[in-house]
Every structure is written in structure tokens, then in C-alpha cells.
Amino acid sequence: MAATVSPTSLESAPRIMRLVAECSRSRARAGELRLPHGPVATPVFMPVGTQATMKGITAEQLDALGCRICLGNTYHLGLRPGPELIQKAHGLHGFMNWPHNLLTDSGGFQMVSLVSLSEVTEEGVRFRSPYDGDETLLSPEKSVEIQNALGSDIIMQLDDVVSSTVTGPRVEEAMYRSIRWLDRCIAAHQRPDKQNLFAIIQGGLDADLRTTCLEEMTKRDVPGFAIGGLSGGESKGQFWRMVALSTSRLPKDKPRYLMGVGYATDLVVCVALGCDMFDCVFPTRTARFGSALVPTGNLQLKKKQYEKDFRPIDNDCACPTCQKHSRAFLHALLHSDNTAALHHLTVHNIAYQLQLMSAVRASIVEKRFPDFVRDFMGTMYGDPTLCPTWATEALASVGITLS
Amino acid sequence: MKLSLTKVVNGCRLGKIKNLGKAGDRTMDIPSCLLYTKTGSAPHLTHQTLHTIHGLPAMAQLTLSSLAEHHEALAEYKEGIGKFIGMPELLLYCSLHDPVSPCPAGYVTNKSVSVWGLGGRVEMTASKFMAIQQALQPDWFQCLSDGEVNCEEATSIKRARKSVDRSLLFLDNCLRLQEESEVLRRSAIIGVIEGGDVMEERLRSARETAKRPVGGFLLDGFQGNPATQETRLHLLSSVTAELPEDKPRLICGVSRPDEVLECIERGVDLFESFFPYQVTERGCALTFSFDYQPNPEETLLQQNGIQEEIKYVDQTKKIKTTSCNQEMTSFEINLKEKKYQEDFDPLVRGCSCYCCKNHTRAYIHHLLVTNELLAGVLLMMHNFEHYFGFFHSIREALKSDRLAQLKELIRRQAS
């Protein structure tokens, strides 16, 4: 195992994570999160259901796929339908009738994605609503207040997010502000017994800034840490180094949530680097464009080559789409105006992600994670030497060689 | 197949069609509706979500307009459309057109009929048509026919006559081609009654079609606006009187609850279920009652409820899909209305569908306002279940001689 020093946690926050197994070579861990709405096996991929819905699939379908935690978004839900209504509906769980766990983002990311509509000050983020032009101020206190009303099992601090392609003093400003905002979120949090507030490590692509952020934030009394500010436009080389730096300085006995990561290769590598939780819109979004995820990449099912392909998307996939339908049928359906086509692919892509994480976890528990990684890369890239350089380097840094 | 009537009450036929399907072991009740599909799939629904619906019909309607462009793939597949679409358990009827999207007129010739898919026009001679049906292998299919004349427009007798002549010619051609193919012999051809609004042509069509060895009859061109309703219904009665009792009568383009009852009273057995789909596409949920024997308290509550519902057409939201520009009816509520924002009741109290058992009006309202795909999924599940429940109640009412009550209940809610 790569030499690291993980600081022992200095606080008495409840430990929501139980480690079940650790890879003896890399930093990969298998564990179990104990959350108010039930246990969650890690490493885990969390599908994103931004507006209190998983994009055309029902809660029952999502449950049947084995999903035990998914995401909702504070910025969107705060505007529509609003926290008061959701509170009347018995929280987000009650509103969307989801029996398992929910994680809500703070609204911070929208600062980057909707940058033309937002303005950041020490107070918070001022947004102009795209729907009615109204201005809202999303402060750390406001974000926590909304998330308290939503009642999600894991809530995120409001962080000052800058795009990873930004350089200069703004990055440092955002990092220090995120620490101050973390403290304000902790102070404002009304329900620490029911909702777990995670900190989000910032610092961009600057190792010193990130290290400072890690040192400071790990002094705070929080049940978990997210690695933020990545998965934007940065190079993969910079990306993995920041992830590795972060995991080397995060406590072992608390979950590490890498935000916005969802491509299969990235998931496998970042598990090796010591991350436990992931979220990404990619699998569900790409489904709605007719793209099905498979161990060798993806199938663009709208293309003519699938017109007479009577095989399922993936022979080894246990999802309802693959059990019942062929690529040819999905191809025909994708060329129609029946939305069912999108739902078939959404089901499959979520299944793919969850099955991948399950397989990763099993390999860690059974002490064969490095072999799993080699098999995975072999299938995905055909040959270990064709694996992207950054991934090869990242894996090597934690003791996994591909050839 | 064998149609046996249990009883006939005031022109309404109650019965069963037995020995259906490739193995001859399936049964279908009449009167009944067929599951509406688009490109071989219930709208918005995967196999999983479709099968949470209670009371699914035994037979689904496929449309040639959505499938014709895929016939090459189907021919290579060889195993038939039922397996291809993942519905091997349902009986399948293939109609020419999609009742929701009308097709442009002027494309029927003496030799061919065209259907309009999303990829464009597919022109079919009798041979091509039968070749496509050979690839599809449905249980029943509507014969190639000239359906451009319907009762709406004042038809010239000449045009009406041509529609009957052409359709009979197509029918004879298709029957001949069917004789030559073992695969095609396993499907039943449904003869199509044409003739516009010209009585003598309608009667001729009915009598002549009935002479052929068809599996059943499709009453075409009887859809239209309320203005011409009486004429249409009169024509309909006259036509069904000419048809043999032991073969099913299907009608296309009629799906509204009140119109369904009128047609059942005039000897129609099977209907399309596109109405719940149209309701879904305008963000509405079916709420009309078909409980013709409620307890008196319930009746009072229901009546008050019905009076309170304000009918209006939602003009602010554009309907996304083709041809759902129908106006909202009084059989439904519009979930986009602001008053549902905080309504935590299910769509219909007492409904056993997945949506009503798991979600609230407020949630559906939110999904519609935020343009989320799940809105269509949940509304479709509810609207289909509600509609199938309506058909169940028709059969029950016929069984217990209470159709008059049901009819009155529906009439009170229609307008």
C-alpha cells in the first residue's frame, strides 16, 4: 500500500461507515454506510435524480435495480416545488415516495454550471431564476435550511465552487471561503442526528491549496468528506493526482465521496485511489441520447448497424431491458416518438453502473481487486497497453500494474 | 377462433372469443378494448411498468404505420412481432393506421395504400402488404383498405362506391395471397367495412365483406365530431345488422367512454384504447366514475365533486406529440392546474393503480411543471388502468342488467 498518513479523526462524530475489507495493494476499500434509511454497501454509485425523479423510471424500478441511495438537487428543488411544500409532503422521501437513502447537493455546483446567472459574495450565491427572473440568495444557512426541510440522509455543505480550469487568486479565495462556509453550515444544521452533513474539499488543482483545505476541514466535526472542484474541464493527469492527494489525507474511518465522477474507467481507478461514493448524470443522461453502456464502452443504438442485431445490449446483464429486449427492437423504438425507448436505456445504464460497483466490491472483499482491475481494463481497452496513460499512472501510484 | 355470446341486451353483446392465439388456447372477453401501442410498445411504458397495470387487455393493437418501415429487420428476425417487441404473452391485432395521428389523404390508389411512419411514407400493394404481415405474424390484421372516406364529410356516392370496391378488391387479393402462405394462414384477416356516409354503399360493403372468409370486421370511418353523430350511429346500427353474429366487430377511431357505450349498443365488440393516451399527453388524469352501484353517500359526494370540476382547455401548454390537440374532456382533471400544487390526495381515491397507490396529485403536478419524463409514465399507468376498469364495469353491468345505470352515470359526466 502506498505510504500515507491518515490523520486519526479528532472528533466524536458518529461513524457512519464501517470498513469491511481493504485491498492490501491499493487504497481500495469495501464498506457499509449506516444511514437513516438503511445500509448502503460501498463503493457505491449514486444515480442522479435532480428534480425528485429518476428521469422516467419509477421508484419501484429503481429499488428493483438495487439502488439504495440517489441524489436530489437543492438548487432545483428549492425553486420548484420549494422547501415548504416538500416539508408538507413529509420531506423529499415522502414527496417522491423513495424508501431508501437520499443525498442532496447544496446548490454549489450550479454556481459553476449556471455562472451567467449567479454572483458570489461572502454572504452566499445570488442567483437569478431562469424561470421567473426572481433573485434568490443561496447562503450556507439557506442551503442547510432547505436541505433540512428536504430531509435527505446526507446533506452537502455549500461550497464556493470554481471551475477546475480557473487559475489564480480566485481559487485560493474559494478554498478559504469554503472552509468558512463549512463552519457556517455546521452551525446552521438543525438536524445532525437525522441528516449527515458532509464537508467538500476544494483547492482546485493546486496541491498546496488542497492540502491546506484538507488539513483545516478534517479538523471539523463531520461524518464524511467529499472531494469537490474536480470532474470539470481539467486534464485527467491533474484530476487523479488531486484525488490521490485528497484520499491520502482524509481519515480512513469516514466515507470519501468523489463528486461528479461516473465513467466506468474513472470509477474503477478512483476506487483504487481510495474513494467510496460517486455520483454522475452521465449514465442517465447518455441513456436519453440512445447510448447504452457496456463493458467495452457504449453502443449508440440509434445507428443503422443495430437495425438487425437481435442480441440484448449485454448478454451478461441481468437488467429487465436485457432480459426482454434486443438491440434491434431498441433501435426501432429509439427511432419512434415513444419515450419508452429512453426508459429502457435508463434502466440498463443504471443497472450497468450498479452491477459494476457490486463487482468491484466483491473483488475487494475477496481480495482480488488488482486482478479485477486488470480484467476490467483489458475488456474496456482490448489491451493493457491501450489503457489511457493517466489511468495506468494512477493505478501504478497505488501499486496496481496493468501488464 | 370461436365467438360465443353469453347474452345480447338492447343490442349490446356480451360474450367471449375463444381459441385465440397461435396455440389456440387464449380467450378474450367482449366488449373489450385493445392495448394501444406506438412502435410496438405501450406509450411511455416498459414491460415492467406495463405489467403493474391491473386488468390489461388480452390483445394489443399494433399499427402498421409505425412498424412497416422495420419490416426488413422483422423478416430477418423471422420469429414475429410479438417476440420482437417483448410481448409474446399478448394477442396482437395490427391496424393500418394510428388512430391518434391522422394520415394525409390522397394516397390510396386502385393498387396500393400508403401508411405514414416517422421515416416517411410506405406505399403498399397487396403483395407488399401481405409480405409485411408475413414478417409480423400478428394474430389478426386489418386488411388493406381504402379508408379515406369517412362519415364526417359529405361524400360523393361515387367516392363512397370506390372505397367499397377497392376495399373488396384488396380483400380478395389478400385472401388469395393468404392461401398461398402457411405462415399467413395462422393469422386472421379482418375485413374492413367502408362506404362513407352513403347507406347503400355501407350495406353493400357489409354484405359483400361478410361473404368472405374473414376473421372479423373493422367498422371504418365512423369517427367524427358530435354534429354528425346521429347519422353515424344510425349507419352503424344498419351496418352491424348485416354482419354475422359469430364474428367480432371492431371499430377504429372511437375511444371516448360515452362514444364507446353508444357503439356497444349498436353491436360493436372491440375498441382501441388511445383515449387514455391522449389524456396523458395533455397532462391530464381520468377521474370519471364508472361505479354504477355506489352507496348513496358516495353518490352525493361524487355529484358534488363533478359539479365543482371546472372544465376548460389548457391553452398555455403546447402538446408535444402529434395530433393530441383534442380538447380536454369532462372525464378528466388537468394536473397542471395550480390547485393541485398542494393536493396530497391520489389522482383518484380508491384507484388501485401504481400511481394512485404511491403518489400524489402534488407530485404529478410538480413533474409536469418541471417537464419530467416520469409524469407521462405515471399518468399513462393510471389512465390505462382507469380505462380498463371502465371496460370491466361495462361487462359487469351487462352481466347484471345494469347498463342503463352505467350509461346514465357516464352521460351525466360527459359534455
From TrEMBL, chain A:
Catalytic activity, reaction form: guanosine(34) in tRNA + queuine = queuosine(34) in tRNA + guanine
Keyword terms of this UniProt record: Cytoplasm, Glycosyltransferase, Membrane, Metal-binding, Mitochondrion, Mitochondrion outer membrane, Transferase, tRNA processing, Zinc
Entry membrane topology: Peripheral membrane protein
GO molecular function, one term: tRNA-guanosine(34) queuine transglycosylase activity
InterPro entries in the cross-refs: TGT, TGT-like_sf, tRNA_ribo_trans-like
Localisation: Cytoplasm; Mitochondrion outer membrane
Pfam family, one: TGT
Gene3D superfamilies reported for this sequence: Queuine tRNA-ribosyltransferase-like (3.20.20.105)
Binding site for substrate: D105, S106, G107, G108, F109, D159, Q202, G229
Region (RNA binding): 260-266, 284-288
EC number: 2.4.2.64
Keyword Transcription tagged: no
Needed cofactors: Zn(2+)
Active site residues according to the UniProt entry: D105, D279
Positions contributing to Zn(2+) binding: C317, C319, C322, H348
A Gene Ontology cellular-component term: mitochondrial outer membrane
Principal localisation: cytoplasm
The keyword Repeat is annotated on this UniProt entry: no
GO biological process: tRNA modification
Record PANTHER family: QUEUINE TRNA-RIBOSYLTRANSFERASE CATALYTIC SUBUNIT 1
Purpose: Catalytic subunit of the queuine tRNA-ribosyltransferase (TGT) that catalyzes the base-exchange of a guanine (G) residue with queuine (Q) at position 34 (anticodon wobble position) in tRNAs with GU(N) anticodons (tRNA-Asp, -Asn, -His and -Tyr), resulting in the hypermodified nucleoside queuosine (7-(((4,5-cis-dihydroxy-2-cyclopenten-1-yl)amino)methyl)-7-deazaguanosine). Catalysis occurs through a double-displacement mechanism. The nucleophile active site attacks the C1' of nucleotide 34 to detach the guanine base from the RNA, forming a covalent enzyme-RNA intermediate.
Family: Belongs to the queuine tRNA-ribosyltransferase family.
Subunit structure: Heterodimer of a catalytic subunit QTRT1 and an accessory subunit QTRT2.
NCBIfam families documented for this protein: Q_tRNA_tgt (TIGR00430), tgt_general (TIGR00449)
HAMAP family: Q_tRNA_Tgt (MF_00168)
Protein name as annotated: Queuine tRNA-ribosyltransferase catalytic subunit 1
Taxonomic classification: Eukaryota, Metazoa, Chordata, Craniata, Vertebrata
Gene designation per UniProt: QTRT1
UniProtKB/TrEMBL annotation, chain B:
InterPro entries named among the record's database cross-references: QTRTD1, Queuine_tRNA-ribosyltrfase, TGT-like_sf, tRNA_ribo_trans-like
Cofactor binding note of this UniProt entry: Binds 1 zinc ion per subunit.
Family indicated by similarity: Belongs to the queuine tRNA-ribosyltransferase family. QTRT2 subfamily.
Record lineage: Eukaryota, Metazoa, Chordata, Craniata, Vertebrata
Presence of keyword Zinc: yes
Record key words, sorted: Cytoplasm, Membrane, Metal-binding, Mitochondrion, Mitochondrion outer membrane, tRNA processing, Zinc
UniProt xrefs under PANTHER family: QUEUINE TRNA-RIBOSYLTRANSFERASE ACCESSORY SUBUNIT 2
Name of the protein: Queuine tRNA-ribosyltransferase accessory subunit 2
Signal peptide, first to last residue: none
Pfam families to which the protein is assigned, alphabetical: TGT
Quaternary structure (record): Heterodimer of a catalytic subunit QTRT1 and an accessory subunit QTRT2.
Function: Non-catalytic subunit of the queuine tRNA-ribosyltransferase (TGT) that catalyzes the base-exchange of a guanine (G) residue with queuine (Q) at position 34 (anticodon wobble position) in tRNAs with GU(N) anticodons (tRNA-Asp, -Asn, -His and -Tyr), resulting in the hypermodified nucleoside queuosine (7-(((4,5-cis-dihydroxy-2-cyclopenten-1-yl)amino)methyl)-7-deazaguanosine).
Organism: Neovison vison (American mink)
Entries under SUPFAM superfamilies matching the protein: tRNA-guanine transglycosylase
GO BP, sorted A to Z: tRNA wobble guanine modification
Subcellular location: Cytoplasm; Mitochondrion outer membrane
Cofactor(s) annotated in UniProt: Zn(2+)
An MF annotation (GO) of this entry: protein homodimerization activity
Topology term for the membrane: Peripheral membrane protein
Positions contributing to Zn(2+) binding: C351, C353, C356, H382
GO cellular component: cytoplasmic side of mitochondrial outer membrane; tRNA-guanine transglycosylase complex
Chain ranges of the tRNA-guanine(15) transglycosylase-like domain: 13-413
The keyword Cytoplasm is assigned to this record: yes
Principal subcellular localisation of the protein: cytoplasm
